[in-house]
C-alpha cells in the first residue's frame, strides 16, 4: 500500500483464507498506482466491524469497495447496505460447491441494494473495474487503462504471430 496517501479503494475479505485470491486485486491496484486499504471483516463473525467500516468508508475518502467472500457470502451485500459507494463483490471458491454458493449469494441481491459481481475468484477483474470507476474523474488513470488495453491487444497479436510461424 502506498504510504501517505488516502486509500481510494477498500479491499475487504471475509477471512484471511480469502487473501490468496484477494491479493490479486491489491497487486492490480498497485500496478495502476491506486492507493487502497485491505482488511478482514466478516458479515457473520464480526458484523459490527464490517458495518462500521462500510458506514465510515466514504467520509474517509474511499470511492469504491471491493469485497470478497466465500460460502454463504453475505459480506458484499452487508457492506452495500451501509454505504452509497459502489461495491464490487468477488465470489470466492471456498467450499465443496466451488464458489457457486458465493456467486449466487453475491449476485442475487434484493432490489435497491446492488453489488457489481465479478466471476468466481475474479479479484483482478474487480480491481480493473474499480480503476475504471475511478478513471471517470481521473484523466491520468484513464490513460493508464488505455495503455493497459493496448498492451493486452499487443500480447494477443504476439501470440497470433507465433501461431502463424
Ligand atoms: C467466508 O467463509 C470467508 O469469506 C471464507 O471464504 C469462508 C471460509 O472462511 P474460513 O473458515 O477459512 O475462515 O466467510
UniProtKB/TrEMBL annotation:
Q: What is its EC number?
A: 5.4.99.18
Q: Which InterPro entries match?
A: PurE_ClassI, PurE_dom, PurE_prokaryotes
Q: Where does substrate bind?
A: 15, 18, 45
* Enzyme class label: isomerase
The protein's annotated pathway? Purine metabolism; IMP biosynthesis via de novo pathway; 5-amino-1-(5-phospho-D-ribosyl)imidazole-4-carboxylate from 5-amino-1-(5-phospho-D-ribosyl)imidazole (N5-CAIR route): step 2/2
The record's Gene3D superfamilies line, in alphabetical order, gives: 3.40.50.1970
What's the family? Belongs to the AIR carboxylase family. Class I subfamily.
Q: What NCBIfam families does UniProt report for this protein, alphabetically?
A: purE
- Name of the protein in its database record: N5-carboxyaminoimidazole ribonucleotide mutase
Q: Which organism is it from?
A: Peptococcus simiae
Specify the taxonomic lineage: Bacteria, Bacillati, Bacillota, Clostridia, Eubacteriales
Name of the coding gene: purE
